[in-house]
Design brief:
CATH class: Alpha Beta
CATH superfamily: Response regulator
Number of strands: 6
Structural class: alpha/beta
Number of helices: 6
Oligomer: single chain
Number of domains: 1
Length: 148
C-alpha cells in the first residue's frame, strides 16, 4: 500500500500564472469567464465597474503578484475605462489588455493614438477568448488582432 506524499508534488508544481482582471458588466458573463480561466489554471478577479478596475490596477502595480492581463468583455468604444488608458500609462500601471467583442473589432484609433498603449491592446472574438488569453500572456497573437 503506497501512501500519498504531498511534498513529492511540490517539485513538479506548475508555475504560478498571473492574475487576470476581468472587467465584465454582466455577472453571468463574468462567472462563465472565471470558470473557463480557472480550468486553465488562471486566477481571475471579476470587477464590474470601470473606475474600480482602474483603481485595482493602480493599487496592484507594485504587488508581488500583479495583474498580468486585463480582459474587457463585451467592450464598447464609449466605455469609461478606455478613456483612462493614458492615466494608467502615466501611473505606470498599464498591463496587456484583451478587448473581447461580440460584434466584431473596434476601431483602435477611436481609443488611443499612443503607440505604447496600442502595443498592449489586443482584440478577439468572444468565441476564442480562452486561446487569446494564453496567446497574449505568451506574447504571441495568431488568433487575436493587434492594434495597428
Amino acid at each position: 500500500m503506497s501512501s500519498f506524499n504531498h511534498s513529492t508534488l511540490q517539485g513538479n508544481a506548475m508555475p504560478e500564472q498571473p492574475d487576470i482582471l476581468v472587467l465584465a458588466h454582466q455577472p453571468e458573463q463574468a462567472a462563465n469567464l472565471k470558470f473557463l480561466l480557472h480550468l486553465a489554471n488562471f486566477r481571475a478577479i471579476h470587477i464590474a465597474d470601470d473606475i474600480e478596475a482602474f483603481n485595482y490596477l493602480v493599487q496592484r502595480q507594485n504587488s508581488p503578484h500583479p495583474v498580468g492581463l486585463l480582459l474587457i468583455f463585451d467592450v464598447d468604444i464609449n466605455q469609461p475605462f478606455l478613456h483612462l488608458l493614458e492615466e494608467l500609462k502615466r501611473r505606470q500601471a498599464l498591463v496587456p489588455i484583451l478587448l473581447v467583442r461580440r460584434d466584431g473589432p473596434i476601431d483602435i484609433d477611436q481609443v488611443t493614438s499612443d503607440p505604447e498603449i496600442r502595443l498592449l491592446l489586443r482584440q478577439c472574438d468572444q468565441s476564442i477568448t480562452h486561446s487569446c488569453v494564453r496567446e497574449v500572456l505568451d506574447g504571441v497573437c495568431s488568433n487575436c488582432v493587434m492594434a495597428s
